[in-house]
Amino acid sequence: MTRSFKISILASILILAVAVAVGWRDRQQMEASRQRNARLISQAAVLGISPSGKPDAVLVTKREREHHDAEGKREATELLGMLGEADAMVKRGENADASFQQIMARLVSLGPDATEFLITDIMADRELDDEARGGILRILLLKLSTDSPQAMLRRLHELPAMLGDKDGTRQMHDGLLKTSLASWGKKDPRAVAKWIRENGAGFPGVINDSVKSGILSAASESNPALALSLIDEMGIEDKDQAFGLITRAARTAEGRTATLAALRARFSHSPQEDPKGDVMREAVRQLAIGAFTGGYDQASKWLEGAGLASPEMEAAASALDYRHTGTETGRWLDWLGQNLPADRAGEPISRIMTRWTELDYQAAGRWLAAAPEGPVKSASVQAYAIAVSGYEPATAAQWAMTLPAGKGRDATLLQIHQNWPKEQTAARDAFAKEHGIE
């Protein structure tokens, strides 16, 4: 590519300064938008739908390749022209902030072909010092790793020539490798698994289990069954980590249902991977945490329709916390009583009721006063009475006496006595005498 000017060192430095100080927020917004578009394109690809509305071509013809090359050169040339104009403004002493913001916006929107042409052009510019060239190339390479990861992987070996053979280059190399694999994995995890199988040995210590599991986590957002099937193909040794990351990637009710079904199928065919059901219970727990964030109606509907076995339902309940229940705590306490065995419901009910009382004892007390008699109320009364006994021991004692006579009431009275404010010696001793506490 030929051009009629060279980017001055001053302009290069300003590009980087504006990118950080002025244009970074715009870049983040554009990147977020681009990522949303990428997710939609990835989902469309899974369904066999081309984003253009036309079937994907199997082969790229010479004419199409030449067209892409021409478009890429045109985009790169236009951007370089904008740089030249901004450079001239700086030299004239004019404020070029707006121009550089436009340049950054154009840079973010560059197509992959144009990005590659620009990388080649910047590398060939001998008037740029190493710092300026390296700064611009880092921006372009990061963009390429996201937009065209396969192209970035093909150019990884060029990094020493681009950025110099130094410690920072190795760190940049590893970062670009991971970003490229993650970006590619969202679109075509099978291809990434094949690439890792064929090339992974050349990157010892870089493409580890965490990187591989992260790739499958991204892929599982659209196809958890496929992600699980690639664990062995990728040679992942820490399978529990992979199961966990894939599970936590499910962010919708449909995604949780699909992930649960995929996990059940996996362990049904390979029971040796989870002989005691621990992995499955932890997966259900993680899926439940995601469900709880949607509120009572959505979460309870998903849990009740998931076909959970009793141990799995207990695992889900173990993850429920007051931070999830909030203003719907009363409904959740009732739900726990209805969906857990009587001897298993007490722990989550007591834990949640205790926290509710600590944060809003008046609301908790009003709910208790209106709650129907039964195991849920009894467990809640015990937790409430113990929670308020340190500052309202008389109230705690009154609530405790509403419990059915037996071990539960006796244990609650004993705990109230132990928590009784020490300065209230006479009242504490009278309470002990009344209830036969020594």
What does this protein look like?
This protein is an all-alpha fold and 438 residues long. The protein has three domains: 1-187, no CATH class; 211-306, no CATH class; 320-438, no CATH class. It is built from 24 helices and no strands. Helix 3 packs antiparallel against helix 4, helix 12 (224-233) runs parallel beside helix 14 and helix 21 (375-388) packs parallel to helix 23 (407-419). The protein is elongated. The termini are far apart. The model is unreliable at 1-60 (pLDDT under 50).
Query: Which residue ranges are poorly predicted, with pLDDT under 50 across at least 5 consecutive positions?
Result: 1-60
The strand count comes to 0
Order of helices and strands: HHHHHHHHHHHHHHHHHHHHHHHH
**Apparent shape:** elongated
Structural class: mainly alpha
Mean pLDDT score:
83
Please provide a brief summary of the model.
This protein is an all-alpha fold. The protein is 75% helix and 0% strand.
